[in-house]
Amino acid sequence: MNVKKDILRRATLASVAIFLFALAIIARLTYVQFFQKQNGRLWKDRITQYHIKRDTLRATRGNIFSRNEDPLATSLPYYYVGIDPCVAKTDSFNKKIDSLGILLAQKFGERSRDEYTYMIRKARDSGRKYVLLSRKKISFQERMEMQKWPFFRRDRRQGLGGGKFDAVYQRYHPYGRMALRTVGYLNPETSRGFVGLEASFQKELAGKDGVGLVEELSGGVRMPLEDGSDIKPEPGLDIYTTIDVNFQDMAETALLHGLEKYQAERGCLIVMEVETGEIRAMANLTLKNGKYVENFNHALAGGTDPGSTFKLPTLIALLEEKAIRPDQMVHTGGGAVMYRGRRISDTKRGGHGSITAQQVFEKSSNVGVHMLMSNFYNRPETYCRYMRQFRLDKPIGLQLRGETKPVVPNPQSPGWSRLSLSSMAIGYELKLTPLQMLAFYNAVANDGKWVQPMLVKQIRRANEVVKEFEPYVAPDPICSQSTVRLAKKMLEGVVERGTARKSQSPYYRFAGKTGTAQRLINGRYQVGKYYTSFIGYFPAEKPKYSIAVVIDTPHGASIDLLYGGSVSAPVFREIADRIYAYDVPMHRPFASTAKPVRPSSRGIKAGFADDIRTISTELNINTPPSPDGWVKAEAQGSKTQWVSQPTQSKVPDLRGMTLRDALHLLENRGFRVRFEGYGKVVDQSVPPGDPLPHPRKITLTLRQTARPDTLAVVLDKKNQSGK
């Protein structure tokens, strides 16, 4: 019995001891948290201010590059500026804190010098390890400038240090709004791709986020911490497109000229390489609030009735069926005919009379096509089978989301009527995009081989190619070689004698077809509203580029001025002229009895001396002796002299330089650069030769000046040669 009492007594004492020990621990914790101070601050306040947790470390988004390897979309670092005020030694801190306050007040202007110094001193006295100095973000160039300041220098032998730059990344388009709808942009709320390549290649561009310790400071600021357990983020992959920035610039300029001339509501222009299907340019413009902006991809998603450009597949089907010959006569009468209660008419008053099938196509006669289509009216399925053979009923599958599915009806389709075939033959009751029609015309230019249009060439991780996209060529040609030859002759005839004859070039031959269709709005065709187009290729003898131009809903003084031959064909000619001048290897060789003239260096404006020497050697151009580094051409009588550009203490003369050269030169000098327009530098906001300004900001004005001059030189040489 005594043993039991002894055990009970000992257990009670142990329980009391444990309780008292736990109570002591709780009391100590309460005291430390709510009453004990360190550096004059309660621990509970420090815990409220400093909160450490595991969080997502965002991966750097990949870049989108042009065919020229120029960045079309990239992520640039911007920085929040902070300081750990406890790092510096006391003597050094007291000597330099006023200087830092002055610099911060000048830089950010959010506080006075005294307010900055007070804020930093107070944080140091309280033991705070981080102070956010401004809610404004700074650029990389500004960071380089600030790294010369006290507390931010990398050399800490003076007992200073503590300056911090916390990076955040923002998407930047070096070429402004060029090809914006094709390149795409991000959803500002989610930072995910919203449209264009940014959305279509979201997974590849986004990379993989990491996980790490993040300290949440007051004001919502996050500061990554290193503890050795981080999962590092993997940067996104880089996308290399087929877009050529020079072609894109030319395309947007030519399209804008056409739209402005006729005050059209919208339009698009596509340039594609015939053999590979690589898209060199894709321009889309829409009139909004009095300005043309790129806010919708009409080339990819603008499905509508193509109009007379669809007469090409109709005529090729008839030729393949051996139902017609180009030289057979067609009686179009007075230019109008009734068919099953509907009037079919030509635009020419009085009609074309008796003409050949070739002329039916050249003059784009609706009545003539109707007469030729009598071969298919009793067997519509045969005609529709050819449309499938031409791949017009299938999406092209471009590496870009948002393609409108084509609508090419057949006798089993809902809404098919006894008038459907006659409508389809001249480009109505259909829904096709400019890119889908261009793919078909490109197949004709490519000797019947259908090539899938391509926008992305490679995906890379740094310099390593992760994925290569090869051109896809359909296994079966769209038609026989004999039909291709006849079709090409018909397309050439449109330009030489037909509806596009006013747009002929005396320096190269091109082929194509004009198109005009009434606009279908809310199920009704609108009088006076037209969709005009021209699709073709050049040079006609050996096609290298195929081009589609659409000018939608133009406005003109007379109805005759609103057709594709008057509206869209001149735009084709303009872009073809520019490409022809730019793509020198495409020029036809010509014989000349004139004495050979070695090119002069007078056409070279400015640039990096090594680059200019390399280019001059390749082009067999005489070059005067030049200094190294950046140079500018100056005419001295009949000779050209290259003079060195001041780059260290004075603002260089940037006029005549490409944007890339100007940016390289300026950013190495710490400038923040803005630019307007496209082409070469024609003006700069800070005059050349001035001392370097503070702050170092400059605006460049760019303009296309070289290409028309280059074209004139090329054409003058051909004139001199007798070609």
TrEMBL record:
The keyword Cell division applies. It comes from the Bacteria. Its main location: membrane. GO terms for biological process: cell division; cell wall organization. Residues 645-704 form the PASTA domain. Keywords: Carboxypeptidase, Cell cycle, Cell division, Hydrolase, Membrane, Protease, Transmembrane, Transmembrane helix. GO terms for molecular function: carboxypeptidase activity; penicillin binding. It is found in: Membrane. InterPro entries: Beta-lactam/transpept, Beta-lactam/transpept-like, PASTA_dom, PBP_dimer, PBP_dimer_sf, PCN-bd_Tpept. The chain crosses the membrane at residues 12-31. GO terms for cellular component: plasma membrane. Coiled coil: none annotated. This is Cell division protein FtsI (Penicillin-binding protein 3). It comes from Larkinella arboricola.
